[in-house]
Amino acid sequence: MSDKSKELLELYRDLFQKVKEIYQQDNTLTVKSLLSAIKKGKEYLALKRHADEEQLQLVEEFLQRDIASFIAAQTEDDLSYSPTAITLENTLWHWLGEISDRSQVEWHELARQFSQKGVYHSGDIVTQGTLTCTNCGYKMDIEFTDVIPDCPECDHSEFTREPLMP
Fold first, then answer.
1. Does residue 166 lie within any of the structural domains?
2. Which range is most confident: 39-43, 101-105, 143-147?
């Protein structure tokens, strides 16, 4: 290895050591921001004085590659970067949101049941559940929020509701 190559290699090692120091101070930096920070440092300027344009371009390519590898190695044990962990977290938040929404609907329905004293009439709007005609005992399943029709069996207009099951 020529003296110039040894000198460039030593300057590159100093430059990469600076990458590690900067990353330890702020581990949220990306490859691009680390490379930008390095290009402003004195180590890069020293390298620039000793290398021609082609060598400098090659060093920058090596730096990008090595910075990317370094960041990947630093974050491989950190689950917050794992696509699996991110998907799992998003799924859990989705499930919690659904549970919360369902709970809110059930609480509103319960409050409405108390105000109606458990008696519903044709024309009332009701969410899902089973309504029982107070006249003939016919059970009507309501799947979605809907207006209560008259009883299909006896045309009566008064119903009670079975308790919601979670």
1. no
2. 143-147
